[in-house]
Amino acid sequence: ILSALGARSIVLVGMMGVGKSTIGRRLAARLGLRFLDADVEIEVAHAGMSIPEIFATHGEPYFRDGEARVIARLLEGGPVVLATGGGAFMREETRARIAAKAISIWLKADHDVIMRRVRRRADRPLLQTADPEGTVTRLLAQREPVYANADLTIASRDVPHDRIVEECIEAL
Ligand code: S3P
Questions:
Q1: How far, in Å, from the CA of 3 to the mean position of ligand 1?
Q2: Which one of 8, 11, 86, 97 has the largest count of C-beta atoms within 10 Å of its C-beta?
Q3: Confidence of residue 158 (pLDDT cuts 50, 70, 90)
Q4: Angstrom distances, CA of residue 63 to CA of 32, 57, 88
Protein backbone atom coordinates (compact mmCIF):
# COMPACT_ATOMS: atom_id res chain seq x y z
CA ILE A 1 0.00 0.00 0.00
CA LEU A 2 2.72 2.45 0.94
CA SER A 3 4.44 2.06 -2.40
CA ALA A 4 1.12 2.49 -4.20
CA LEU A 5 0.55 5.69 -2.25
CA GLY A 6 3.92 7.04 -3.29
CA ALA A 7 4.35 10.44 -1.70
CA ARG A 8 0.61 10.92 -1.33
CA SER A 9 -1.11 11.43 1.96
CA ILE A 10 -4.45 10.02 3.06
CA VAL A 11 -7.11 12.59 3.93
CA LEU A 12 -10.27 11.71 5.80
CA VAL A 13 -13.35 13.81 5.09
CA GLY A 14 -16.96 13.66 6.24
CA MET A 15 -19.37 15.03 8.80
CA MET A 16 -18.75 15.73 12.45
CA GLY A 17 -19.00 12.59 14.52
CA VAL A 18 -18.20 10.03 11.83
CA GLY A 19 -14.90 9.08 13.50
CA LYS A 20 -12.33 10.83 11.28
CA SER A 21 -9.91 11.42 14.16
CA THR A 22 -10.25 8.02 15.80
CA ILE A 23 -10.09 6.07 12.55
CA GLY A 24 -7.37 8.31 11.16
CA ARG A 25 -5.16 7.77 14.19
CA ARG A 26 -5.49 4.00 13.93
CA LEU A 27 -5.08 3.96 10.17
CA ALA A 28 -1.87 5.96 10.51
CA ALA A 29 -0.56 3.54 13.14
CA ARG A 30 -1.34 0.56 10.90
CA LEU A 31 0.45 2.15 7.95
CA GLY A 32 3.36 3.56 9.95
CA LEU A 33 2.46 7.11 8.90
CA ARG A 34 2.21 10.23 11.00
CA PHE A 35 -1.31 11.25 12.03
CA LEU A 36 -2.41 14.89 11.93
CA ASP A 37 -5.74 16.37 12.94
CA ALA A 38 -6.56 19.64 11.17
CA ASP A 39 -8.80 20.88 14.01
CA VAL A 40 -5.98 20.37 16.53
CA GLU A 41 -3.45 22.08 14.26
CA ILE A 42 -5.79 25.08 13.90
CA GLU A 43 -5.99 25.33 17.69
CA VAL A 44 -2.19 25.12 17.95
CA ALA A 45 -1.83 27.82 15.28
CA HIS A 46 -4.13 30.00 17.40
CA ALA A 47 -2.04 29.74 20.54
CA GLY A 48 -4.24 27.04 22.00
CA MET A 49 -7.62 28.72 21.48
CA SER A 50 -10.34 26.07 21.11
CA ILE A 51 -12.43 25.82 17.94
CA PRO A 52 -15.53 27.19 19.76
CA GLU A 53 -13.43 30.11 21.03
CA ILE A 54 -12.12 30.84 17.53
CA PHE A 55 -15.70 30.78 16.17
CA ALA A 56 -16.94 33.02 19.00
CA THR A 57 -14.09 35.52 18.80
CA HIS A 58 -13.41 35.74 15.08
CA GLY A 59 -16.42 34.16 13.35
CA GLU A 60 -16.81 31.29 10.93
CA PRO A 61 -15.36 32.92 7.76
CA TYR A 62 -12.11 33.63 9.61
CA PHE A 63 -12.03 30.03 10.87
CA ARG A 64 -12.59 28.71 7.33
CA ASP A 65 -9.71 30.75 5.88
CA GLY A 66 -7.37 29.55 8.62
CA GLU A 67 -8.57 25.99 8.13
CA ALA A 68 -7.81 26.10 4.39
CA ARG A 69 -4.30 27.48 5.04
CA VAL A 70 -3.54 24.91 7.73
CA ILE A 71 -4.65 22.00 5.52
CA ALA A 72 -2.56 23.29 2.60
CA ARG A 73 0.48 23.52 4.87
CA LEU A 74 -0.04 20.07 6.40
CA LEU A 75 -0.18 18.52 2.93
CA GLU A 76 3.12 20.10 1.89
CA GLY A 77 5.27 17.75 3.97
CA GLY A 78 5.81 14.01 3.64
CA PRO A 79 2.90 11.58 3.52
CA VAL A 80 0.61 11.70 6.53
CA VAL A 81 -2.88 10.62 7.49
CA LEU A 82 -4.87 13.84 7.93
CA ALA A 83 -8.29 14.13 9.56
CA THR A 84 -10.12 17.28 8.39
CA GLY A 85 -12.97 19.17 10.05
CA GLY A 86 -16.40 18.44 8.61
CA GLY A 87 -16.62 21.70 6.65
CA ALA A 88 -13.14 21.75 5.13
CA PHE A 89 -13.87 19.71 2.00
CA MET A 90 -16.65 22.15 1.05
CA ARG A 91 -14.09 24.65 -0.18
CA GLU A 92 -13.15 24.04 -3.81
CA GLU A 93 -9.56 25.19 -3.37
CA THR A 94 -9.12 22.73 -0.50
CA ARG A 95 -10.61 19.89 -2.58
CA ALA A 96 -8.17 20.69 -5.39
CA ARG A 97 -5.22 20.67 -3.00
CA ILE A 98 -6.29 17.39 -1.49
CA ALA A 99 -6.73 15.88 -4.96
CA ALA A 100 -3.20 16.97 -5.89
CA LYS A 101 -1.50 15.63 -2.78
CA ALA A 102 -3.57 12.82 -1.34
CA ILE A 103 -6.07 10.05 -1.62
CA SER A 104 -9.29 11.15 0.05
CA ILE A 105 -11.62 8.87 1.98
CA TRP A 106 -15.18 9.92 2.83
CA LEU A 107 -16.27 8.35 6.09
CA LYS A 108 -19.99 8.23 5.52
CA ALA A 109 -22.43 7.82 8.38
CA ASP A 110 -26.17 8.25 8.53
CA HIS A 111 -28.02 10.94 10.42
CA ASP A 112 -28.80 8.80 13.50
CA VAL A 113 -25.20 7.67 13.99
CA ILE A 114 -24.00 11.26 13.68
CA MET A 115 -26.59 12.57 16.15
CA ARG A 116 -25.71 9.92 18.70
CA ARG A 117 -22.02 10.67 18.47
CA VAL A 118 -22.15 14.47 18.48
CA ARG A 119 -24.52 14.53 21.42
CA ARG A 120 -21.70 13.22 23.59
CA ARG A 121 -19.49 16.22 22.86
CA ALA A 122 -20.36 19.89 23.20
CA ASP A 123 -17.44 21.23 21.19
CA ARG A 124 -19.17 21.71 17.82
CA PRO A 125 -20.07 25.39 17.49
CA LEU A 126 -22.28 24.74 14.45
CA LEU A 127 -24.53 22.56 16.62
CA GLN A 128 -24.97 25.08 19.43
CA THR A 129 -28.41 25.92 18.08
CA ALA A 130 -31.98 25.33 19.21
CA ASP A 131 -32.33 22.55 16.62
CA PRO A 132 -29.09 20.57 16.27
CA GLU A 133 -30.98 17.71 14.66
CA GLY A 134 -32.36 19.93 11.91
CA THR A 135 -28.93 21.46 11.46
CA VAL A 136 -27.38 18.04 10.89
CA THR A 137 -30.12 17.22 8.37
CA ARG A 138 -29.48 20.47 6.50
CA LEU A 139 -25.70 20.11 6.58
CA LEU A 140 -25.90 16.51 5.33
CA ALA A 141 -28.08 17.58 2.41
CA GLN A 142 -25.59 20.31 1.48
CA ARG A 143 -22.46 18.32 2.05
CA GLU A 144 -23.06 14.75 0.96
CA PRO A 145 -22.98 15.58 -2.77
CA VAL A 146 -19.62 17.28 -2.19
CA TYR A 147 -18.15 14.57 0.05
CA ALA A 148 -19.07 12.18 -2.76
CA ASN A 149 -16.17 13.67 -4.73
CA ALA A 150 -13.71 11.90 -2.43
CA ASP A 151 -11.71 9.12 -4.05
CA LEU A 152 -13.09 6.41 -1.75
CA THR A 153 -16.20 6.05 0.39
CA ILE A 154 -16.29 3.89 3.52
CA ALA A 155 -19.41 3.41 5.65
CA SER A 156 -18.80 4.45 9.24
CA ARG A 157 -21.27 2.59 11.42
CA ASP A 158 -21.49 0.87 14.78
CA VAL A 159 -18.86 -1.80 14.28
CA PRO A 160 -15.44 -1.85 15.97
CA HIS A 161 -13.23 0.95 14.70
CA ASP A 162 -10.56 -1.51 13.65
CA ARG A 163 -12.96 -3.10 11.21
CA ILE A 164 -13.44 0.26 9.49
CA VAL A 165 -9.67 0.77 9.49
CA GLU A 166 -9.27 -2.59 7.72
CA GLU A 167 -11.91 -1.61 5.16
CA CYS A 168 -9.98 1.61 4.47
CA ILE A 169 -6.78 -0.37 3.95
CA GLU A 170 -8.49 -2.83 1.61
CA ALA A 171 -9.95 0.03 -0.41
CA LEU A 172 -6.65 1.90 -0.79
C1 S3P B 1 -17.07 21.60 11.55
C2 S3P B 1 -16.56 20.42 12.05
C3 S3P B 1 -15.61 20.38 13.19
C4 S3P B 1 -14.83 21.69 13.29
C5 S3P B 1 -15.77 22.85 13.31
C6 S3P B 1 -16.66 22.92 12.07
C7 S3P B 1 -18.03 21.52 10.44
O8 S3P B 1 -14.72 19.31 12.97
O9 S3P B 1 -13.91 21.84 12.24
O10 S3P B 1 -16.56 22.73 14.47
O11 S3P B 1 -18.24 22.53 9.75
O12 S3P B 1 -18.59 20.41 10.21
P13 S3P B 1 -15.14 17.75 13.14
O14 S3P B 1 -15.72 17.29 11.85
O15 S3P B 1 -13.83 17.10 13.42
O16 S3P B 1 -16.08 17.68 14.28
A1: 31
A2: 11
A3: very high
A4: 31, 10, 10
Above 90 in pLDDT, residue 121? no
Q: Helices (DSSP H) in 11-160: which residue ranges? A: 20-31, 38-45, 51-58, 60-74, 92-101, 111-119, 132-147
ipTM exceeds 0.95, yes or no:
yes
Specify the fold of 2-171: Rossmann fold (3.40.50)
Q: Cα-atom radius of gyration of the chain, to the nearest Å?
A: 15
Which residues, 6+ apart, have CB-to-CB distance to 149 below 8 Å? 89, 95, 104
Distance 30 CA to ligand 1 centre (A): 25
Residue 102, amino acid = A
**Cα distances (Å, whole numbers) of residue 62 to 14, 39, 58, 65, 68:** 21, 14, 6, 5, 10
Pocket test for ligand 1, best of 60, 65, 71, 126 (most atoms within 8 A of CB): 126
Ligand 1, CB within 6 Å, residue ranges: 16, 20, 39, 51, 85-87, 124-126
The residue extents of the domains of the chain are 2-171
pLDDT beyond 80 at 65: yes
Question: pLDDT (tens digit, 9 = 90+) per residue, 33-56?
Answer: 999 999 999 999 998 999 999 999
